[in-house]
Amino acid sequence: MRNKNNLDKVVEMLTAKSEELIEQHPHLKKLRSEVDRLLSTAPDEQMRQEILDIMFQAGRNDLHAQMDHLNGLLDALNTK
Questions:
Q1: Cα-based torsion angle of the residue sequence 8, 9, 12, 15 in order, rounded to the nearest 10 degrees
Q2: Planar angle of CA 44, 35, 48, nearest 5 degrees
Q3: pTM
Q4: How far is CA 27 from the centre of its chain?
Q5: Euclidean distance between the first and final Cα of the chain, in Å?
Q6: Cα of 29 vs its chain's centroid, Å
Q7: What is the tens place of the pLDDT at every residue in 15-68?
Q8: What does the alpha-carbon distance between residue 7 and residue 3 come to, in Å, rounded to a whole number?
Q9: Are 55 and 35 in contact (CB under 8 A)?
Q10: What contacts 21, CB < 8 A, 6 or more positions away?
Q11: 50 Cβ partners below 8 Å, 6+ apart?
């Protein structure tokens, strides 16, 4: 029972932090809606975790591509 209480407190805290983040960055509402939609269609916890992993990898790959692009721009400026 104690573990469930701790888990409930953690979920409550994370939910509050999520709401705070959305208030500070309203453009993330669309992303949160998409994540919620995808997770709601998952049949079980393992599939939800796989969906989150895929989304994380896609975001990381996009960020990496953007950083490569910026590095290319910096390299081009340095060679002038």
A1: -100
A2: 20
A3: 0.67
A4: 13
A5: 66
A6: 12
A7: 999 999 999 999 999 999 999 999 999 999 999 999 999 999 999 999 999 999
A8: 6
A9: yes
A10: 28
A11: 42
CB 22 within 8 A of CB 29: yes
- CB half-sphere exposure, 15, CA atoms < 13 A: 7
Sign of the C-alpha dihedral computed for residues 54, 60, 63 and 65 taken in this order: negative
DSSP codes of every residue in the chain:
-HHHHHHHHHHHHHHHHHHHHHHH-GGGHHHHHHHHHHHHT-SSHHHHHHHHHHHHHHHHHHHHHHHHHHHHHHHHHHT-
